[in-house]
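Protocol step 4 of 6.
Sequence for Nitronate monooxygenase (Phenylobacterium montanum) entered exactly as in the expression construct, tag removed. Do not edit the line below.
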Amino acid sequence: MIDRAFLTRLRAPICAAPMFLVSGPELVVGACKAGVMAAFPAPNSRTLDDFEAWIARISAEVCDAPWAVNLITHASNDRLKAELEIVARHRPPIVITALGGPRAAIEVVHGYGGLVIADVIDLGLARKAIAAGVDGLACVSAGAGGHTGFLSPFAFVSAVRERFDGLVIIGGGIADGYGVAGAVAAGADLAYVGTRFIAAEESAAADAYKAMLIGASLDDLIVSAAVTGTPASWLKPSLAAAGYDLASAGAPPARNYGDPAEAAKRWRDIWAAGQGVGAIRAVEPVATIVETLATEYGAAAARLALTIAR
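Step 5 output, structure tokens:
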């Protein structure tokens, strides 16, 4: 059984999802101080020295607030061993694994009492992660931005809960507090909210990226494997500006997560977004975004309680 006590310290059951070239220490610290969990992907730190400095800074500034490092555990990530050595030294409370098996992280993180959550997009991967001994699953579902899933978030969390008592995060098109409440009502402990935080002032996203998100809608999204070799949800205008044929979206390249600089080139001017994109109306401080989400979550919870009372 997982100790869920840290959830009671959150203003709302939200994790600001780790997003490539978007989530950094400023966003993580801001989100945690505003009262939600947050994570950043290790490849966002261009060097191992940067990675260690980011972890040390976040640890010092957020005190006992829950936060996470997202590690790419795919075999092509040649930094993984060194990243795990840094994790062992600084002991982030939560590690989220993605695009590979969680076993290497489990051995290290459980060694100091931390939690390991595995990103999964289907039941097959969920079963493997559970068998490996993870503490939680981040169920990336249809509607998620960036590398996306294809299952309904409600069907996914229901199927996972039949076989797993651990921590469950559900993500996929959740961009307001009402969606967060729906995820929790369906059986999740936390909701992944990603796209909504791209336009935060503390986000590392380019100003042009943030501007494109404002006023964008579902019609502006396309799911394609052409950029990274893995299906991902992209903003059509950014693909068109980069010369991609939206009808075919080109041929998928080989996946390689071992060179953050090379990966960054692919994502620098081609921008991801999930189906919650329509909730973005302005560039705002992360504290303002969290305030709105928490207020909406409270309203949704009150409405659900009123419905039950009837």
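Step 6, annotate. The longest strand covers residues 67-72.
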